[in-house]
Write a structure and sequence with these properties.
Layout: E1 7-16, E2 19-29, E3 34-38, H1 45-53, E4 60-65, E5 68-69, H2 75-80, E6 83-86, H3 98-102, H4 104-107, H5 116-129, H6 146-159, E7 164-168, H7 176-191, E8 195-199, H8 203-209, E9 212-217, E10 220-226, H9 232-240, E11 258-267, E12 271-279, E13 283-288, H10 294-302, E14 309-314, E15 317-319, H11 324-329, E16 332-335, H12 339-343, H13 350-354, E17 363-364, E18 367-368, H14 370-383, H15 400-413, E19 418-422, H16 430-445, E20 449-453, H17 457-463, E21 466-471, E22 474-480, H18 486-494
Parallel strand pairs: 3-8, 3-9, 6-7, 7-8, 13-20, 13-21, 16-19, 19-20
Antiparallel strand pairs: 1-2, 1-4, 4-5, 9-10, 11-12, 11-14, 14-15, 17-18, 21-22
Helix pairs in contact: 14-15, 15-16
Length: 497
C-alpha cells in the first residue's frame, strides 16, 4: 500500500553536548503539498532539515520516504532518495554557465566527451518547461540576478529528478516581482506532485503560498495544521508559546525638531540627487525594491562610501562625514544589513562588541578598566532585554535576534542620537521581531532619530511615521502615516501609476 506521505519523520531526537536540539520531533509532507516549517530561532527547524539532508545524523527516530524506512547517513544518500535542499547561500559555481550548473554532475562523470550543445539545449528546455525560458542557458551564473540564480538552483535539483524540495528563507533578497515568479514556479512544482518544505519567518508568504504548517518550539512538535484552519495571530502564539498581544508596539514618541538633513546626495551609480530629513523621535522608513539604492544612500551619509556631491546638515550645521569615524563622532550609528559580517565581530565576546564604540567611557589613560567595561556592558544589554549566559561568551553563541540586539547595543553605549537601521529584522523569528520593534520604539521615545530601511511592507506601515520610496537611485515618493498602504508602496516602488 502506497504511503499518503512523501516524507515522514517521527520521534526525531538529536543532542549536541548533552543539550537537546530536537526531542521526539515529528514532521511530514504529502506529495503535491507546500508545507511550511516555522518556529522561533533555535526551535530546531534547521537541525531537522539537516537530518533529512544527511548533513547531521539523528540520535534516534524514524525517517520514511514514500513509505519506506531509510537510514540517511550522508548528503549523497539523501540526494539519491530524491531530497534537495536549497539554502540561502546558493551552491552554484558562479563562473560556469547556467547549463553547466544545472547538469554539473555530468561534468564530473565518466564520459570523456561532453556534448555541450545538447547540454545547453536540455537546460533551455527545462527552464522553458518551468516558465523561465527567458534565462539564457549559456550565460555565466554570476551575471544573473539573485532571483534567477535561485531558479537555476531549483532546476539543478529537478534535473536530478528530486521529488522533495526544501527551501530555507527563499525570498530573503528577492523583489516583489521576483517573489511572484518564484511562487508561480513552486505552485507549478506542487501540481507535478513534488513535496515542498518551505521555511520562512515571513508569515504573509506562508498564508499566501502554503497548504499546511508545522510549528516547532524548543526542539519539539507543537502542532501541525492546515493553513485554512489557522490565522496569523494563532500561529504566532503557537510559535512563541505565549499570547503575543501585538507584534507592533503602540507608537507614542513625541516628534521634535529636524536632527539630520541630507541635501542632493550623489554617490556612485546607485545614489542620484537624494534629499530627505529626519526629526528627533521619528522613525523614517526607506522602502523600495532590492537595488533601489537605499543601502548605498545610507552608507554614503555614514561615510562608509564616498559621497560625490551633496550636503549633510546635522543639528543645524553642515558636517563633513568622510569616514564612519566622523559619523560616530557626531553620534550617528549604522546597523548594517549584513549583521554577521559587518554589524558585529561575530567571534569576539559580547562585552567587546557592546563597548566597541564607547571605549572612552570604560578606560582611563588608554587602559580599559575590565570591571567597569563588564558592568557597563551588562547595563546596556539589560536596556535591550538581551538574553545571554555571560558577557564573555562570543556573539556567535547567540540567536539571530540577540545578535541584532548586540549590534544595537554598541550604538546605545555610544549615546547615539541618530540611528540608521538596514533591514533590522531580517532573518530573526517573530518573537525576536516583536522585541526589536519594542526597542526601536523605546529609542524613538527617548528622542533618537531613526532611519529604517526595510523590504517588509508590514514593518514599514506599522513602525514608521513617514516613508521615503526609492527607485533606481532616486527618491520617487514620500508617504505620511495615513497614506501608507501596501498598494501605494508597491506602485511607487515599481513605477506604476
Amino acid at each position: 500500500m502506497q504511503s499518503v506521505y512523501k516524507v515522514e519523520m517521527e520521534g526525531i531526537t538529536k543532542t549536541f553536548g548533552g543539550v537537546y536540539a530536537l526531542k521526539n520531533a515529528s514532521f511530514r509532507v504529502k506529495p503535491g503539498e507546500i508545507h511550511a516549517l516555522v518556529g522561533e530561532n533555535g526551535a530546531g527547524k534547521s537541525t531537522l532539515m539537516k537530518i533529512l539532508s544527511g548533513a547531521v545524523q539523528m540520535d534516534s527516530g524514524t525517517i520514511r520516504i514514500d513509505g519506506q524506512a531509510c537510514n540517511i547517513t550522508s548528503p549523497k544518500v539523501s540526494k539519491d532518495l530524491g531530497v534537495a535542499v536549497i539554502y540561502q547561500e546558493f551552491m552554484l559555481a558562479p563562473h560556469l554557465t547556467v547549463a553547466e550548473n544545472i547538469f554539473i554532475d555530468r561534468l564530473s562523470g565518466k564520459k570523456p566527451v561532453i556534448d555541450w550543445r545538447n547540454l545547453k539545449k536540455q537546460a533551455g528546455e527545462l527552464l522553458d518547461k518551468l516558465g523561465f525560458g527567458d534565462i539564457d542557458a549559456g550565460m555565466p551564473v554570476a551575471d544573473l540576478p539573485v532571483a534567477y540564480q535561485q531558479i537555476v538552483e531549483i532546476c539543478k535539483s529537478l534535473a536530478k529528478n528530486e521529488k522533495i524540495l526544501v527551501l530555507d528563507e527563499p525570498t530573503a533578497v528577492l523583489t516583489f516581482s521576483e517573489i511572484e515568479k518564484l511562487f508561480g514556479l513552486l505552485r507549478s512544482l506542487r501540481a507535478q506532485g513534488i513535496g515542498i518544505v518551505y521555511i520562512s519567518h515571513r508569515l504573509d508568504e506562508i498564508f499566501e503560498l502554503c497548504d499546511a504548517v508545522t510549528v516547532l518550539k524548543d526542539g519539539m512538535l507543537v502542532k501541525e495544521l492546515n493553513i485554512k484552519d489557522t490565522d496569523k495571530k494563532s500561529l504566532i502564539n503557537l510559535m512563541v508559546g505565549r499570547e503575543l498581544s501585538t507584534l507592533f508596539p503602540e507608537r507614542n514618541a513625541t516628534i521634535g525638531e529636524t536632527l539630520l538633513e541630507a541635501k542632493h546626495i550623489c554617490a556612485g551609480r546607485m545614489v542620484d540627487d537624494v534629499s530627505f530629513s529626519v526629526r528627533r523621535g521619528e522613525v523614517l522608513g526607506f522602502s523600495g525594491l532590492v537595488g533601489a539604492g537605499r543601502t548605498e544612500t545610507m552608507r554614503a551619509i555614514f561615510g562608509a562610501d564616498k559621497m560625490e556631491s551633496g550636503q549633510v546638515v546635522y543639528q543645524g550645521k553642515e558636517v563633513l562625514l568622510k569616514s564612519p569615524v566622523d559619523a560616530v563622532g557626531r553620534k550617528i550609528g549604522l546597523v548594517p544589513e549584513d549583521r554577521k559580517n559587518q554589524g558585529v565581530l561575530i567571534e569576539q565576546s559580547i562585552r567587546v562588541n557592546t563597548t566597541l564604540t564607547s571605549l572612552g567611557r570604560v578606560s582611563k589613560m588608554g587602559i580599559i578598566k575590565h570591571k567597569k567595561d563588564k558592568e557597563f556592558s551588562k547595563k546596556i544589554l539589560a536596556e535591550l532585554a538581551t538574553k545571554y549566559a555571560s558577557v564573555e561568551d562570543n556573539v556567535s553563541s547567540l540567536s539571530g535576534g540577540n545578535q541584532q540586539k548586540i549590534a544595537l547595543a554598541k550604538w546605545l553605549a555610544a549615546d547615539c542620537q541618530c540611528m540608521i537601521l538596514d533591514e533590522p529584522t531580517r532573518g530573526v523569528d517573530v518573537g525576536a521581531k516583536a522585541e526589536i520593534y519594542k526597542n526601536i520604539n523605546k529609542l524613538a521615545e527617548s528622542g533618537m532619530a531613526i532611519i529604517m530601511i526595510s523590504s517588509e511592507m508590514e514593518e514599514i506601515i506599522n513602525m514608521c511615521d513617514r516613508v521615503m520610496i526609492m527607485r533606481q537611485g532616486k527618491i520617487v515618493g514620500e508617504l505620511e502615516k495615513n497614506e501608507m498602504t501596501e498598494n501605494n508602496l508597491i506602485k511607487l516602488s515599481m513605477g506604476v501609476r
